[in-house]
Design goal:
With 215 residues, this protein is of the alpha+beta class. It has 6 helices and 9 strands. A hairpin with a 2-residue loop joins strand 1 and strand 2 (13-20).
Length: 215
């Protein structure tokens, strides 16, 4: 079975796309550009993005964003308002740790208490007509890191299908989408290696079969 694969750094992790049934690497390059475009819209780890435009305007004015960004933010806010653990407005609190950067640290209890005053997702104002998002208090920040990779992986799968690809593996730092059935396996089942967290240095692999539903 012909297949091609390419890895690159984006979204704060190592990503890999594998396409089956083609040896034309232009398809991989197009897919990577597609992913990078969505990262440019959703990232909060750079000064400029559609989500950062919302954050920069907190306490000042609503911000009109592209439809894809608005729909994701709207869904994230709706889920956040169920108050079961996920919170799209957690940005001010997350940034205290600065995880993944050279100046990462453990914040003080006082800092944590202060930032918790800024993570009320219920206060976010959404305008379906204008496709605008408003954070009403200065210092509020959206952070979609908990769902962005999965969302982008789903959109990439849609894109690959629109281009006629029949099977693919999308791996965004462990966030994995298996597209259709495995063409290199007689039973159509994908095999996923899951690292055993209890083994010495996680050297032992436990292989679990996985099968995608027929599309």
């Amino acid at each position: 079975m012909i297949k091609i694969s390419k890895a690159w750094r984006a979204m704060g992790t190592t990503n890999q796309i594998t396409l089956f049934g083609t040896d034309d690497e232009r398809y991989l390059d197009d897919a990577i550009r597609f992913v990078n475009h969505y990262e440019d819209l959703l990232t909060v780890n750079r000064p400029v993005s559609a989500v950062m435009a919302i954050n920069h305007a907190a306490g000042q004015s609503p911000v009109v964003v592209p439809p894809a960004v608005y729909q994701l933010v709207k869904r994230a806010v709706a889920v956040s308002n169920q108050h079961f653990g996920f919170n799209a407005a957690i940005g001010p609190l997350v940034k205290l740790w600065h995880i993944g950067f050279a100046d990462a640290r453990v914040p003080s209890d006082i800092e944590i208490v202060q930032r918790r005053e800024l993570i009320g997702s219920d206060e976010i104002v959404l305008d379906d007509d204008r496709l605008s998002v408003y954070l009403p208090h200065a210092g509020m920040e959206l952070d979609l890191g908990a769902i962005a990779k999965g969302y982008i992986a789903d959109r990439l799968q849609d894109y690959l299908r629109s281009q006629g690809h029949m099977a693919a593996i999308i791996n965004f730092g462990g966030n994995i989408v298996l597209m259709n059935e495995a063409p290199h396996k007689a039973d159509g089942r994908w095999r996923i290696g899951v690292r055993d967290p209890w083994s010495d240095m996680a050297k032992r692999l436990v292989y679990l079969p996985h099968r995608q539903p027929r599309s």
